[in-house]
Amino acid sequence: LLITYTVRARVFRPLERLSRRMKDFLVDRYSFQFSHPDASELGELQRTFNSLAQRVINTMDELKSLNQAKSEFLNIASHELRTPLTSIKGSLSLIGSGVMGEINPSCARLVKIAETETDRLIRLINDLLDLAKIEAGKLPLAHAWHSWDGIVSKTVEGLHGLAHEAEVQIKADPVPGLEVFVDHDRIQQVLTNLISNAIKFSPQGSWVHITAEITDYGVLLVKVKDQGPGIAPEDCEKVFQRFRQVNTPQPGHILLKGTGLGLPIAKALVAEHGGEIGVESELGKGSVFWFTLPQWR
């Protein structure tokens, strides 16, 4: 019995301690005190684990520092860039409107191009800021109960000009009485990104269809369907990556430049609401972008 107790004390207890430390790493608890291992095979194993653990801790510290530096850089850059860009946009608007005097058609066309590109730069800065805030967990969400049809109608109204220019019709199936517990502005931002993306890749004379239904799993499933060129199966996951565009509009489509961040932001915002997002598509048969919301009534 004494021999058995001694073996358990010298072998199994250190092994149990090492096992607990390994489990700590599995659940992202990276801080603990390293004990001095003894001169045995188990001690050698513990020394190896301690060395690997220290490398992980050092790497985590470096990643935290880099992430903080990235956030600080984006904040500084956004404020330094957004102010002059707003002034440039205002000046271009005044020139284009003729307030500062009449300009010839060729000059007016160049001013309009410059104004459009300035708007795109401002959107890019705002999108980068939103994405950085979401990743840093610093984007507060104001959850409240809202009418689903109200959110959809307001979104469609805001995209009326874009759809008219592209000659694409937006159809939305009403769901009377349905309410969702969300941040109104952020879910409207998700819908805007999905619908505007669908319009961008839709041929003239086609439609974009918005539906909402309760699934058997008890979540609200929202779908945005288009009649565009579709996406290859191997590219469906890539569309949610930053600055990725996996296909280009076919002849007869109007290409509207974006920031390449609309879908990544939509994915992050849906995740913040506890939902999921994805796409179902087939080349030549359009695409269906969908997302879920867990809280509804």
Explain how this protein is built:
- The protein is α+β, with helices and mostly antiparallel strands and 297 residues long.
- Helix content is 54%, strand content 13%.
- The protein has seven helices and seven strands.
- The chain has helices spanning 2-26, 41-97, 105-135, 148-158, 160-166, 184-200, 262-272, and strands at 143-147, 169-172, 179-183, 207-214, 220-225, 277-281, 287-293.
- The strands form two sheets. It has a five-stranded mixed sheet. The chain has a two-stranded antiparallel sheet with strand order 1-3.
- Helix 2 runs antiparallel to helix 3, helix 4 packs across helix 6 and helix 6 runs antiparallel to helix 7 (262-272).
Give the proportion of residues in helices: 40-55%
The total of helices stands at: 7
Provide the gyration radius in Å: 27 Å
| SSE series | HHHEHHEEHEEHEE
Class computed from helices, strands and strand pairing: alpha+beta
What composes the largest sheet?
5 strands, mixed
Low-confidence residue ranges: 251-255
Counting DSSP E segments of at least 2 residues, the number of strands comes to 7
Q: What's the structural blueprint in terms of helices and strands?
A:
Layout: H1 2-26, H2 41-97, H3 105-135, E1 143-147, H4 148-158, H5 160-166, E2 169-172, E3 179-183, H6 184-200, E4 207-214, E5 220-225, H7 262-272, E6 277-281, E7 287-293
Parallel strand pairs: 2-4
Antiparallel strand pairs: 1-3, 4-5, 5-7, 6-7
